[in-house]
Design goal:
Layout: E1 4-8, H1 27-39, E2 44-47, H2 56-64, E3 71-76, H3 83-96, E4 101-105, H4 111-115, H5 123-142, E5 147-150, E6 155-159, E7 173-176, H6 180-189, E8 192-196, H7 200-216, E9 224-233, H8 237-256, H9 261-265, H10 274-284, E10 288-289, E11 293-294, H11 296-300, E12 309-312, H12 314-327, E13 329-334, H13 339-349, H14 351-368
Parallel strand pairs: 1-2, 1-13, 2-3, 3-4, 4-7, 7-8, 8-9, 9-12, 9-13
Antiparallel strand pairs: 5-6, 10-11, 11-12
Helix pairs in contact: 1-13, 3-5, 5-6, 6-7, 12-14
Length: 369
């Protein structure tokens, strides 16, 4: 498939515009949201990780029994479980899901949230640990012989997993980050390198860095590149931008109330992770970029991860995504502010436009060859 779409596997309806009113894990909503993605053309959904959140691997196992096709991408921090245990856990989940499991390895962009789970490594050391962790996962999933590992962060002898993933040779491993250490590790080890949605010029700059690091690591090609946006869709351009301004007001209203645990741990003025710093640089250069990119929500949330929006009609948003496709992006991560409704609308109105245009381009290539 020349393009893929990744949504969010939320466990409750809360978002930046909707304060949470119930518990952290609403199983009925979780299954409903997953099916909304599956029924509306999405390829993958991400089970996110935070120090206090429901365990994403168990939620993914639950969702596996209530879906049939969609891939389940489980976010995982290397500090929370030894890699040999993780390899068995995820191989088991791959069996439970019928070969629909993937893992998104999170190094950790917040020292405070890492410390909440007893992790006090420096940022660069965390990236070194992540590299070892990914290397061990790959070998544990593919080796039929016992093997040793003697790294800085992990040491063991004569391990072999009795359970291997259904997927051959193994499930895909995604990774994200925008620091020098992140580029080096992700370009060397990841199957998928995830970026946050920057203006085209900044994205082009990051791709060049990833290419250089992949070549330095001896890879023949770079990882598949994924990029994340918040879609704000309207029937007309005017209605889309009116909706965008309402969303900005709703974010402010929620922030005026009790902030979420994630927000309390994150500085809105001086974030420590390089990705957020890059997003805030884009904010400083203006709140509208390129065809449809809008950074005003990013400024309100302090560059908080996936926070840059694409605003417009389905045609405009599809065209904006194709601008990134032309740079070499092959996976689009999209999560609306009204999570369920936006998953349905994006799936119905934007995904088919992008797929159709890419299929049209591919057919023209075939005719020309």
């Amino acid at each position: 498939m020349p393009v893929e779409f990744l949504g969010i596997a939320g466990t409750n309806p809360a978002s930046e515009v909707e304060p949470r009113t119930g518990g952290a894990l609403d199983l009925e909503y979780t299954a409903k949201l997953a099916r909304a993605h599956e029924d509306n053309g999405w390829d993958r959904i991400l089970f996110a990780y935070h120090s206090g959140s429901p365990d994403p691997s168990q939620v993914a196992a639950y969702v596996a029994g209530r879906t049939e096709r969609i891939n389940l991408v489980v976010a995982h921090r290397p500090n929370v479980a030894y890699p040999t245990l993780t390899a068995k856990t995820f191989a088991t989940l791959d069996h439970i899901s019928g070969g629909r499991f993937e893992v998104h390895v999170i190094t950790g962009g917040s020292t405070a949230d890492q410390a909440a789970e007893g992790d006090f490594l420096s940022k660069d050391d965390r990236y070194g640990r992540t590299q070892e962790f990914i290397q061990i996962l790959k070998q544990a999933w593919t080796s039929d012989e016992r093997f040793d590992f003697a790294g800085k962060h992990y040491q063991f002898e004569q391990f072999v997993a009795d359970i291997k993933p259904l997927q051959q040779p193994r499930p895909r491993i995604s990774f994200g980050g925008s620091s020098a250490a992140a580029y080096a590790v992700g370009a060397a080890e990841a199957d998928i390198f995830a970026l946050w949605g920057e203006p085209l010029a900044g994205t082009r700059e990051q791709l060049a860095t990833i290419d250089a690091e992949a070549a330095r690591a001896g890879r023949a090609d770079r990882p598949t590149i994924q990029i994340a946006f918040r879609p704000i869709i309207g029937a007309t351009e005017e209605l889309a931008w009116e909706k965008a301004e309402r969303i900005l007001g709703r974010i402010k209203d929620v922030q005026a109330g009790t902030p979420s645990p994630k927000a309390r741990l994150r500085s809105r003025t001086n974030p420590e992770n390089a990705g957020s710093q890059r997003l805030l640089k884009a904010v400083s250069e203006g709140d509208r970029h390129d065809r449809a990119l809008w950074t005003a929500p990013t400024g309100l949330t302090g560059g908080g991860g996936n926070s840059t929006a694409l605003v417009g009609t389905p045609d405009t948003i599809a065209a904006a995504l194709l601008d990134y496709y032309d740079l070499g992006i092959r996976i689009f991560s999209a999560r609306g502010y009204d999570i369920y409704d936006d998953a349905v609308d994006f799936g119905r109105y934007v995904i088919p436009l992008v797929r159709s245009e890419i299929a049209h381009r591919e057919s023209r290539k075939d005719l020309a060859s």
